[in-house]
Amino acid sequence: MLFSVKSFIITKDLITANIENDTISILPGIGKGFFGTGTTIHAGSKPICVIADLFNNDLYQDLAVANFNDDTISIFIGRGDGTFILNKNYKTGVSPIWLAVSDINNDNIKDIICVNAGDNTISIMDGNGKGGFTTTSSYKVGKFPTMAMTGDFNKDTYQDIAVSNFESDSVTILIGIGKGAFNVTNTILVDKRPRKKSHPKTIAVADVNKDGLQDITIGNFGTNAGVSGGNSVMIYFGDGNGNFIKNQEITSGVRTSFIVTQDFDGDAWMDIVAINNGSDNFSFIRGNNDGTFGQSNVYAVGLGPHWASTGEFNNDGIPDLVTANIDSTNISVILGNGDGSFLPYSNIDIGVNPHAVSVGDFNKDANQDVVTADIGGRTVSILLGKGTGAFEDPEKYFVGPTPTAVGIGDFNQDGNQDLAAALFGSRFVSILLGKGDGTFDNGKIYYSGASPHSITVGDFNHDKIDDLAAGNLGGTEVSVFLGMGDGTFNTAEKYDVGLWPYSVTTADVNEDGNIDLVGANFGSNDTYILFGLGDGTFNAINRFPVGKLPSVVSIGDFDDDGHQDIAVTNELSYTVSIFIGVGDGTFYFGTDFIAGGRPTSVTTGDFNMDGKNDLAVSNWYTNDVTIMLNNFK
After folding, report:
1. Residue 593: its pLDDT value, please?
2. How far is the C-alpha of 200 from the C-alpha of 579, rounded, in Å?
3. CA separation, residue 356 to residues 2, 332, 373, 379 (Å)
4. Residue 594: per-residue pLDDT
């Protein structure tokens, strides 16, 4: 269910509201994160939220359960042995969805706030200290409220309430005036855009900037990634008078459904954990020492960044980035500062939709140039670098239908960089031979297989001649072309690697001195390794599962042990997976890192100049690049 609150950790035990079978499960904690055999109690119809607290002052935890379908709250009294007895069912508003516990009227007895999604109200239930409650008042809030949190927003010692309103894109502020009564004084409009929906679903209350005033953090469930308000966390600073001012908006995962504010890293500043229902992960957002939160690692670029490559475009010795923006007709250039941060991007129009971008020096002037594979046309575009971060106007070369990737090598051994383009719209790879002045002559085309999508260059047979490998996304094969040294290639040898090989790159992962091929299979959700024998052939294959729709891999030594490791983007998991190599061609899973919306490519570089390989991830749906700085120690 969309709004099912599945679990809360209470001391060492775990309690879940099971909306599918109308029960509550209690799992006793046995230490070290493990739980014993649980018990089950029956609740009302469609229990959606459960909360534990002391309702009858006997020092045993009791339970309150919101029953979404029959408009009731069930109160269960704890016996102290992990079992509970039903005390009473209380009528609420329509479709209760969330419960909060607080001492609303300052009588030192716990009361309940019930959020009613069906009639857009909250109910105040006054506790009697014996496990009983009386509904004393009801207040209208926004449309489809989902959560309520309490705090003293105006420093008058009375509890106030903040309510997230899913459909009206707002948070309602109710100021306590004593004796359990409230005034609705303020509405925070989370999203003011016409016909757009942020859908604030979750809120947290804490003093995040340590000024002694309560602040509000809002998690937006969102509808569309990549637009302000959707799939984000917002920070609003309180002014001590019950008003709140927006301070920051931070990109989170897809469909943020729950947030927690707490000092998770022990630095005395609040951090945020956002649970992301749509991307099946959570985002850890580290608090800075000024009340702001760290998302300086995310940089906006053009529309639909589908590919990122590392370069050094202004000759300052600091790595820069370039992205191919598939939903526009430009590339974005982002110049690095050398501390892991980047300057604002600049766009360069190429007149057609680019799918991928590679970096080389095509006119031998020691300034880095870029080439794009133009999926929106039948061309590759050459942009010659000026050495200042700026580029000459693009020159286009015909290659064939739907180019999706371009590799760089010296195929005819004349000292000039040549190009090989994967033509997804055909079954071929196209060659362009460089003249050394930034211009190219057409070479031959070579049959690859079903929809070649990626391409890489390396010397697979130790003859000091560049060879090619292409991943055929329309099938299950990687095609290997051995170079003749005159700009031509032998007929391809094909190797099965898995369903829909999206990418291929080169590395010596088993440290035998031979080039291996590493890539990701879009259809079988795994990564493959083809081990090179050094004679241009490949034999054993190693495959291991990754996230949903893995696309691009990048190779680097991420843990500083001298062995090559793998980073892979998982487009539908919204993550980057790290696999640690042991030097013999085997890998073990390291960790998953949250990226942005639909991460499509990853590239390595030492962006903060500390001698470690960092990652840059292009996020298609959120129009940005995530920088992941390597903190291995």
Report:
1. 83
2. 35
3. 37, 12, 5, 12
4. 79
C-alpha span between 230 and 256 (Å, rounded): 9
pLDDT in tens, 50-100: 999 999 989 899 999 999 999 999 999 999 888 999 999 999 999 999 999
Q: Where are the alpha helices (DSSP H) in 2-124?
A: none
Summarised one tens digit per residue, pLDDT across range 99-117 is: 999 999 999 999 999 999 9
Residue 298's SS3 state is: strand
| DSSP letter assigned to residue 362 | S
Task: Compute the C-alpha angle 353/549/371, nearest 5°.
Answer: 30
What is the reported pLDDT for 294? 59
Residue carrying structure tokens 């897809």: 254
Which range marks the domain in which residue 22 is found? 1-140
Domain count, the chain: 4
Q: Which of 263, 295, 327 is the last residue of a domain?
A: 295
Which one has a higher pLDDT value, 409 or 27? Answer: 409
| 503 & 596 share domain | no
DSSP 181-247: EEEEEEEEES--STT----EEEEEEE-TTSSSS-EEEEEE--SSTTSTTTTEEEEEEE-SSS-EEEE
> Distance (Å, rounded) from C-alpha 50 to C-alpha 41?
12
Residue that terminates a domain, selected from 95, 114, 140: 140
Determine the Cα–Cα distance for residues 333 and 354; give it in Å rounded to an integer. Answer: 14
Q: Quick one: 117 and 26 in the same domain? A: yes
- Sheet with 281-285: list strands edge to edge: 256-262, 271-276, 281-285
Rounded Cα distance, 521 and 525, in Å: 6
Q: Is the pLDDT of residue 229 over 80?
A: no
The arithmetic mean of pLDDT across residues 496-522, rounded, is 98
Query: Percent of the chain at pLDDT above 90?
Result: 76
Cβ-based neighbours of 99, under 8 Å, separated by 6 or more: 49, 50, 51, 64, 65, 66, 73, 112, 113, 114, 115
pLDDT digits (tens, 9 = 90+) for 381-417: 999 999 999 999 999 999 999 999 999 999 999 999 9
- For residue 548, give the DSSP letter: S
Neighbours of 94 (CB within 10 A): 12
Buried b (16+ CB within 10 A) or exposed e, 247-268: ebbbbbbbbbbbbbbeebeeee
CATH number at 34 reads 2.130.10.10
Render 329-362 in DSSP notation, one character per residue.
TEEEEE-B-SSS-BPPPEEEE-SS---EEEEE-S
Residue 263 in tokens = 């000092």
**Which phi-psi region, left, alpha or beta, contains residue 255 (left: φ > 0; alpha: ψ -120 to 50)?**
left
Secondary structure letter of residue 344 according to DSSP: P
| Token pair of 135 as six digits | 């509904």
Q: What is the mean pLDDT of the chain?
A: 91
Rg (CA), the chain: 29
In whole angstroms, give the CA distance from residue 566 to residue 568.
7
* pLDDT value of residue 161: 98
pLDDT tens by residue, 173-215 = 999 999 999 999 889 988 766 556 789 999 999 999 999 999 9
Burial of 207 (0-12, 13-18, 19+ CB in 10 A): middle
Over residues 539-551, the mean pLDDT reads 94
- Give 560-586 pLDDT, tens digit per residue: 999 999 999 999 888 899 999 999 999
Residue 211 domain-assigned?
yes
